[in-house]
Amino acid sequence: MKDKVVSVDQMRRSDAYTIEHFVPGKELMYRAAQGVFDSYDGWAGRSIAIVTGGGNNGGDGYALAGILKNQGIEPVVYRVSDKLSDDGLYYLEIATDLGVPVRNFDEETDFSGYDVIVDCILGTGFKGEVRGKAADAIKAINASDAYVISVDINSGMNGDTGEAHLAVMSDLTVSIGYYKQGLFKGDADKYIGKLTNVDIGIVLID
User: Fold this and answer.
1) Exposure of 30 by Cβ count < 10 A (0-12 exposed, 13-18 middle, 19+ buried)?
2) 8, 9, 29, 162: which could join 185 in a potential S-S bond, CB 3.0 to 4.6 Å?
3) 206, part of any domain
4) pTM above 0.85?
């Protein structure tokens, strides 16, 4: 069941159902971040940037920052958006209290010094063309020589069709809950290196 491929809408409804009846959103966010941490064994001794957007995908990044910090690893967070979900704010405050540097991404930001970049900018619900700071951040990530990990989906990719005008080029994409259809369609093969999925306890509904 955990390898089932779902649409973005089915995933969204299943996520909401699980939060309403079984598992709080903050706990699901933590499980997602822990799943990303466990999916890669090269954290130690590396310089790490986590690039976050304004939705729950960004929240996963803040939660991951706290997990890394508690493991003695020193990430730096770059915010692409001033917006933040309530659960994302919760984990941002934890990361900040732990001493994780949180910086605003701008046109001067240079990722060339990082060994690992975690892409938490845009989630599976994104459609269309990326613009503004998010587009600049994606271009900066793609211009780096870092090992790139995309959380849930490569930012800029359509979660249902796999289409992308501009998207993050990942070495590893860690799908959360269930694989989304777009991870196997459209332009996905051009953008995704290795693909894995982590089960965080989401109850799937039709």
Assistant:
1) buried
2) 162
3) no
4) yes
